[in-house]
Request: fold
Amino acid sequence: MKIEKIYIDLDTNDISPTLIRSYVYNLDCEDWIHEPFDERYIEHYEFEYIIKSDGSMIHEGKHYPLKPGDLCFKRPGEKTQGFKPYSCYTAIFKMTNKEYQTPYQPYYRNEILDRIPSVYQVKNHKYFEMLFKMILDEYIKETESSAIKIKSYLLDIMFTLYEEIKENYLPSSPYYGKISKAIEFIEKNYHNKILLEDIADYVDSSPFYFHTIFKQTMGITPNEYLMKYRINYAKQLLLLTNDSITDIAIKSGFGSSSYFCYCFRKYMHTSPHNYRKLHKIS
Reply:
């Protein structure tokens, strides 16, 4: 049955995803045959993270070959049809805590959500796969803290996806060359001590001018970008390794465990130890 899209503007502060259902499809690749799924209309918000694929999808009339590492974002009212074979993690969720009068959700308009395409090839495959695994794990366990953990994972997916996509809009900036070169420098040298002067010198600019064009283009300062990159890298190490807090601090470029713990708590509102204890799958 066709679903009419109901467009509603949504403030970013009101984004509060609540999981409806999570599952993994065809993980063992037993159903590896070429055939279509039924065509359907989306009733809720859906993320699909492609693990393996020799299939595709027609979504809103556009054909998408599906590749491992593709993240599909489907919105209420959109028409979709998948074509086997592929395997994926799926999370179906409500976008807000607001009540709505129809059996399906509104199509929310928001500056972050509007930037997320229907299919996007993520950069960090392992990190996204880990988030979907943790969502499924908490959905199955269903403990007292599962709902809030899942909410944080869904927000992490949206935020990390948005940050990746925002970087990909750089080519439209008149400062594309300098900014992309600076980001490359940061991401290759984050584990070392980096000053604003170091980055500015690398892109042949004065510190003041470089700081101005970076913030104008990226929406954050170079130091904020460096800090977020280090924090995100540290989060991966906390969840994917058994490295000590001190080792993670050094590998992430913080220099000492005390400074790392201070910065991590400032950005994540919890300590590295508690973050690992809360989120790591044993």
Summary: The domain at 7-142 is CATH 2.60.120.10 (Jelly Rolls). The chain is about 40% helix and 20% strand. The two ends are 43 Å apart (CA to CA).
